[in-house]
Amino acid sequence: MTKSAGKLLFDGSDWNFATLSRTYDAIEEIALGELKLDIYPNQMEIISSEQMLDAYSSVGMPLMYQHWSFGKRFVFEDHLYRKGRRGLAYELVINSNPCIVYLMEENTMAMQALVTAHAAFGHNHFFKNNYLFRQWTDASAILSYMEFAKKYIAKCEERHGTSAVEAILDSAHAIMDQGVFRYRRPPRLSSEKERERARERLEYEEQTFNDLWRTLPPSTRDREEAERDASERKKALNLPEENLLYFLEKTSLILEPWQRELLRIVRVIAQYFYPQRQTKVMNEGCATFVHYTIMNRMFEKDQVSEGTMLEVLQSHANVVFQPGFDDPRYYGMNPYALGFAMMQDIERICTAPTAEDRDWFPDIAGNGNWRDTLLDAWANHRDESFILQFLSPALIRKFRLFLLTDNAGDNFLEVASIHNERGYQTIRAALARSYDIGANQQDIQVVDVNLLGDRQLRLRHNVKDGVQLEETSRDATLRHIRHLWGYDVSLVGVDAETGETLYECSTDGDML
Fold it and tell me: Which residues lie in Basic and acidic residues bias regions (predicted)?
């Protein structure tokens, strides 16, 4: 039986702004009224494929500053797109207030409805309510800050030259992943006072320094004083420091004020994207669940046709497709597939639980309130904790998950756990751990620097599971750090469990 044409919001693939507005209102009614979503105001914009490629190249920010790497990426993405080797996203959404949603002008009306539900309501709700985004980003200020950053960098290029600006940005981009606070807020100190104190100490040291003393063997008292001085120095500099960009911005003795501001701009952008890296499964799962639920509800209300739903379901199926481990297309767990499946599973556990579900999830099994359960999960979890708490044995069986152990000293892989009673807990814990950014990203910290001595910046890499840094990129990155620091930089790799030193390297006076 076909839908009544009189109730349909649209008919066919063509769209206009009146149709978009009418469909948006219908989606909003379901999203806010039935799903109880809480969103920022939406700012919808229609863009061309070239504008979408431009957004790709500038990490999705509408007011990104200029840099050669963005142009290089634009050429790369454009080449693949023109050759038909890569498609473009149907939409792009910015975590801002108002929430900016870009829709591709080439989309059919069915796709415009789908991506409006997905981005303008699913992603929007997650951005506004998840605790990581609330604590670590400022949606109301990011656009104005990016506008300032773009203008500031353009003025720096006019005043100091493009090459000088690019040299600082190149080095800052090279250590961008080490430019975020993972465990604490940035300390609110007067950087100007700290720099002034450092200058005074250096001037005093230069006036009183006598190279002859370096040839004398240190006495026990000298060593004790050195250890005490080192302890006081580390305390004053708040060492060890996890945020390398922040430390260089505040402490480097060679950077001028405008160069420090460039480091701060890159650091703010890195921090802005950090929550998104920790919530990929939840964020995409939330948006996918929302669009799937809304589009099916619109179909039940006779607002969209069977043809529209077929197109929507085909696109949805492509998004949540999960290749098997032996499929050439396999690249790991699809965050859309895993997130959507877990949220559907939570709905099932809340409404039609099995005896197994009641054993594993006594707090939510059969509570009948899947909406509030999901709203609470979206607000209070990141990927790691979400998987650790909500991944069910039923879903582990559905995905046929198993755990491989890969020891560096062995020439084989071992299947350590499979989807059975003995393996559920182990598989769930291992999958959750794989989404822990803190555990999987290299832990490199500033541990010491003697501003009154050799001024060498000492870094420590806490090596986990024996995974060391690739030598070529490691040395290149150290040279970038030296460029920003101005003096030698050393790096020591230490086994995180035993404390054994695995490797040592330094810049040895090399400059970029």
Answer: 220-234
- How far apart, in whole angstroms, are the C-alpha atoms of residue 347 and residue 374? 8
**DSSP code per residue over 157-223:** HHHH-HHHHHHHHHHHHHTGGGSS-SSSPPP---HHHHHHHHHHHHHHHHHH--GGGGGSPPPHHHH
β-bridge partners, 462: 443, 494
Cα–Cα distance between 343 and 347 in angstroms, integer? 6
CA distance 417 to 335: 22
What's this model's pTM, rounded to 2 decimal places?
0.81
**Amino acid in the structure at residue 236:** A
* Cis check: omega of the bond before 98, within 30 degrees of 0: yes
Contacts 24+ apart (CB under 8 A), 455-459: 455/253, 455/486, 455/487, 455/488, 456/487, 456/488, 456/489, 456/490, 456/506, 457/481, 457/482, 457/485, 457/487, 457/488, 457/489, 457/490, 458/490, 458/492, 459/244, 459/489, 459/490, 459/491, 459/492
- What is the side-by-side strand order in the sheet with 99-104? 42-47, 99-104, 91-94
Task: Please check whether residue 57 is in contact with residue 70, taking contact to mean a CB–CB distance below 8 angstroms.
Answer: yes
Q: pLDDT tens for residues 440-450?
A: 778 889 888 88
Read off the DSSP letter of residue 470.
P
